[in-house]
């Protein structure tokens, strides 16, 4: 790809968009670069040189056929086709062995290597979505591995025959081996992805899963069934699903795929797929990744998957921003790489790797941060965005309310005096952002004219303080209760005594079914 073509792809103002009606997914917005040329790219299933291969930029995915549907039409490897029925059934009658219509349409988009933003990945759909993107990730690794092995054989044969071979024909690798990065919020979600991966890859074969016992001890469910405990506490279904297993947020694991085995805990320099939490990966690359080699293993990521991305907002979105900045950068010290430089793709050497990376983002609800992330991606195949249909509402919009200063001034000058003058007790102030919470607490304490209780996410393990704040609010000893969204996400308490509620900013809709 020439620099001029790359600049056209990066200019999203020149992209064209249209809306399509898909039978299962519904309304989908398709955006593609409007560069009407063919550019060289090393195709996964081709043995030609880069200069001899053509790929049309911005290929629009096609709606799958209802009759005579075949996975082979999407270049899915035979092994995966045979094992898919086992992976797509976990003993739950709601999860059929054959692909659902939603899975077929998602696979059509994924196989086209378009970016995808799907904000309807609720807990009822986690199983079918996880199966599809895991299938796609493994298929991508197997296709690229087959190509590398074929080229290795041809190069070895040429050396034995002492025949000169043009090595430009065999540029089939990135700077490093990892090709797929899957970001997940909790250990138990990573456990389910890895188990699905093992079933898809090794089901029905005499094969080896290295370090499987260690993996089950580290990531698997414990002796106590946390799901049953959550049900006893009368929590909603989505809460039970989110917190049903190990909810540790600091983890990372490399997975290496071979012909007859799956190696877990493979080093990042020699693995094919990385599963990690944003926090776990942030610990690895640190804050100075731009001046060190700590993030070099992320230079050649070709498929990026963010599952349950709405939960990342409840953890720390800054980790996601740092990781996105570290992806597909040129390695700091190319001489230390184990990869043969003559086998590295030209578009990687030219710094165009971000244009060849596919980003898949699944969320339970539309969030501005997720939309912004997808909008900054520059995949040459474009992107597909599921359009959420909401009920028609009449809204009164206040200009500038997304500005924290404007929102704060409006609250202290307009809303707060009204509630104080009318002596409206039992008022909950629901605050999504912790920075806004700190600002309001400081102001109300300094002002001194308002009695309040406070509950925030840093009180999750302080049950006595939480109980005291709830009791004072319920008994009317405190007029206001300042309550943060993250605490509500992790505990989902039923706050008694609320007669008035003020949403300081838009809440995440899934927390209020």
UniProtKB/TrEMBL annotation:
One GO-annotated biological process of the protein:
maturation of SSU-rRNA from tricistronic rRNA transcript (SSU-rRNA, 5.8S rRNA, LSU-rRNA)
Cellular component aspect of the GO annotation: small-subunit processome
Name the chain's protein: U3 small nucleolar RNA-associated protein 25 homolog
Q: What is the lineage of its organism?
A: Eukaryota, Metazoa, Ecdysozoa, Arthropoda, Crustacea
Q: Which GO terms describe its molecular function?
A: rRNA binding; U3 snoRNA binding
Q: Where does the record place the UTP25 C-terminal domain?
A: 401-508
Q: Which residues form the UTP25 NTP hydrolase-like domain?
A: 113-383
Q: Name the major location.
A: nucleus
Q: Where located?
A: Nucleus, Nucleolus
What the record says about family reads: Belongs to the UTP25 family.
């Amino acid at each position: 790809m020439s620099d001029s073509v790359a600049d056209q792809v990066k200019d999203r103002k020149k992209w064209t968009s249209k809306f399509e009606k898909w039978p299962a997914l519904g309304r989908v917005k398709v955006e593609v670069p409007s560069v009407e040329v063919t550019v060289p790219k090393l195709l996964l299933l081709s043995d030609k040189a880069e200069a001899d291969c053509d790929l049309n930029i911005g290929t629009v995915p096609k709606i799958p056929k209802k009759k005579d549907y075949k996975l082979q039409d999407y270049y899915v490897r035979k092994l995966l086709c045979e094992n898919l029925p086992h992976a797509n059934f976990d003993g739950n009658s709601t999860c059929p062995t054959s692909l659902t219509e939603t899975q077929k349409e998602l696979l059509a988009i994924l196989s086209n290597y378009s970016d995808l933003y799907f904000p309807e990945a609720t807990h009822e759909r986690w199983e079918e979505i996880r199966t599809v993107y895991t299938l796609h990730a493994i298929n991508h690794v197997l296709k690229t591995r087959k190509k590398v092995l074929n080229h290795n054989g041809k190069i070895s044969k040429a050396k034995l025959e002492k025949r000169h071979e043009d090595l430009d024909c065999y540029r089939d690798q990135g700077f490093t081996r990892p090709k797929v990065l899957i970001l997940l919020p909790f250990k138990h979600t990573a456990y389910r992805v890895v188990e699905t991966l093992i079933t898809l890859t090794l089901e029905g074969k005499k094969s080896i899963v290295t370090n499987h016992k260690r993996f089950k001890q580290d990531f698997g469910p414990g002796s106590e069934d946390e799901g049953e405990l959550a049900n006893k506490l009368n929590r909603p279904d989505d809460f039970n699903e989110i917190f049903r297993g190990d909810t540790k947020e600091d983890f990372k694991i490399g997975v290496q795929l071979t012909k007859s085995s799956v190696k877990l805990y493979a080093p990042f320099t020699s693995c094919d797929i990385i599963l990690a939490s944003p926090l776990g990966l942030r610990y690895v690359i640190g804050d100075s990744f731009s001046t060190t080699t700590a993030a070099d293993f992320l230079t050649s990521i070709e498929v990026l998957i963010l599952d349950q991305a709405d939960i990342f907002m409840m953890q720390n979105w800054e980790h996601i921003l740092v990781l996105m900045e570290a992806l597909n950068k040129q390695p700091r010290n190319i001489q230390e790489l184990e990869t043969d430089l003559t086998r590295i793709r030209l578009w990687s050497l030219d710094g165009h790797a971000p244009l060849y990376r596919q980003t898949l983002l699944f969320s339970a609800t539309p969030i501005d941060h997720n939309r912004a992330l997808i909008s900054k991606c520059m995949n040459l195949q474009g992107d597909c965005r599921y359009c959420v249909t909401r009920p028609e509402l009449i809204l009164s919009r206040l200009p500038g309310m997304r500005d924290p200063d404007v929102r704060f001034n409006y609250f202290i000058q307009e809303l707060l005096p009204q509630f104080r003058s009318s002596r409206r007790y039992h008022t909950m102030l629901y605050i999504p952002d912790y920075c806004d919470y700190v600002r309001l607490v400081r102001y109300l304490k300094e002002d001194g004219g308002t009695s309040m209780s406070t509950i925030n996410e840093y009180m999750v393990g302080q049950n006595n303080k939480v109980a005291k704040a709830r009791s004072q609010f319920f008994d009317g000893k405190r007029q206001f209760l300042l309550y943060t969204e993250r605490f509500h996400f992790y505990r989902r308490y039923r706050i008694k005594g609320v007669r008035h509620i003020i949403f300081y900013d838009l809440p995440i809709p899934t927390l209020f079914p």
